[in-house]
Amino acid sequence: MTVPSPPPIVVDLHWQGGMRFAARSEAAEFVLDGPGNTVPTPVQALAGSLAACMGIDLVQILTKGRHPLQGLQAHLVGNRRGEEPKYFTEITLHFTITGDVPPDAVQRAIDLSHEKYCSVWHSLRQGIELRATYEIRKDAAH
């Protein structure tokens, strides 16, 4: 049985001068800028999208598993080639999980996101080395 594809993502850009673009996708509006002085560059937005995509997966998987997730933070470091095109070659994504969540549940959620669910990751160049690590804090007081 074939699963139907989701509708296409449509983004419309409007050049605002310099290297700045206003973007709209359905009801969402955002701005991207080449220099990244006040808004993200396209590459920063891509990195943030990857961290958010995997973070969303973790929240969904852990809460569906009835784990007492109280908070989640992500810290991404992406290394890029020095020459053009300056694509990502290596990404380290560290999650800080707050709550009494078992380590095996966190690792399983990371693995599921990386291997199956995160559409941003699966849309990227697959030669990128991805390291995802985590720490668990039992409560927000730390």
3D structure, described in words:
It is a single chain. With 142 residues, the chain is of the alpha+beta class. 30% of the residues lie in helices and 36% in strands. The protein is built from 3 helices and 6 strands. The chain has helices at residues 42-64, 103-117, 119-123; strands at 12-17, 20-25, 28-33, 69-80, 88-99, 129-137. A 3-stranded antiparallel sheet has the order 1-2-3, with no helix packed on it. Helix 1 crosses helix 2. The longest helix has 23 residues, at 42-64. The chain is globular, with a radius of gyration of 17 Å.
Q: What is the subunit organization of this protein?
A: single chain
Instruction: Sketch the topology as an H/E string, one letter per element.
Output: EEEHEEHHE
N-to-C span: 49 Å
Residue stretches low in confidence (pLDDT < 50, at least 5 long) are: none
Radius of gyration: 17 Å
Short description:
By secondary structure, this protein is an alpha+beta fold.
